[in-house]
Design brief:
Blueprint: H1 6-39, H2 44-72, H3 76-102, H4 104-123, H5 130-143, E1 179-182, E2 185-188, H6 192-233
Antiparallel strand pairs: 1-2
Length: 235
């Protein structure tokens, strides 16, 4: 053990053991969702997300295994593989963040296109989107908003047809700035598109926080693995 810090060695092992356990949990949970999802007819977009989770769980497991074995066996080869893999993941995260910032305008175009599709679904009179329309009314009541982009106009012929209290303000809100008078009743004037955008921004802050946290952990892993790699080389 001369030349190799026991503290560094076992810190590296513990760090990667928890890393490996997290990978096992993610992999096991995502496989369970995948199997039950196929049986219950889960849609393709959700399955794609689950497949991504399976890949992430597998990668974390492999990285954790390389880090643990590399630390315990003092294997420079495993430690170098761990370092390279972790460095590539960190680079991919940075590239993904840069591309997201560069293509911000395209993301906004896609978002606006999605809102337009939502409006078409609200205006549908065929009954095909009945369940979606009912869920959207619940969303309106919960978030005190109306329509997607243009308030009650987004409902078209369905306004007051599907429900007599559609977009209607609660009695305590009628005298506030939240409401306006429309067709002899008070309705919420804020479009739900603004609410959805705010929710996305709030979640984006959380996602960015998680991304920075992961980056910090990855940098810590890089420092541990390279330090141990160099110490083993000097033995």
């Amino acid at each position: 053990m001369a030349g190799v810090s026991k503290c560094m060695k076992y810190s590296m092992f513990i760090f990667n053991f928890f890393f490996w356990v997290c990978g096992c949990i993610i992999l096991g949970f995502s496989i369970w969702i995948r199997v039950t999802g196929v049986q219950q007819g889960m849609d393709s977009s959700t399955l794609a997300g689950v497949n991504l989770l399976i890949a992430v769980g597998s990668i974390i497991m492999i990285l954790g295994f390389l880090g643990c074995c590399g630390a315990v066996k003092e294997s420079r080869c495993m430690l170098m593989l761990f370092f390279i893999a972790l460095l590539l993941i960190l680079i991919l995260q940075i590239v993904g963040g840069v591309l997201g910032a560069v293509n911000k305008s395209q993301v906004e175009v896609v978002f606006n296109s999605t809102l337009s599709i939502m409006v078409e679904s609200l205006q549908s009179t065929t009954g095909e989107h009945k369940e979606y329309q009912e869920e959207f009314q619940k969303f309106e009541r919960k978030n005190k908003c109306c329509g997607v982009l243009n308030g009650p106009k987004d409902w078209g012929e369905n306004f007051n047809k599907l429900s007599t209290d559609m977009c209607q303000c609660e009695p305590e809100d009628q005298s506030s700035d939240l409401c306006k008078k429309y067709q002899s009743k008070y309705i919420y004037k804020k479009p739900c598109g603004d609410v959805i955008m705010q929710q996305i921004k709030d979640n984006l802050v959380i996602i960015m926080g998680i991304a920075f946290g992961l980056a910090a952990i990855e940098i810590l892993g890089l420092v541990f693995s390279m330090s141990l790699y160099c110490q083993i080389g000097r033995k």
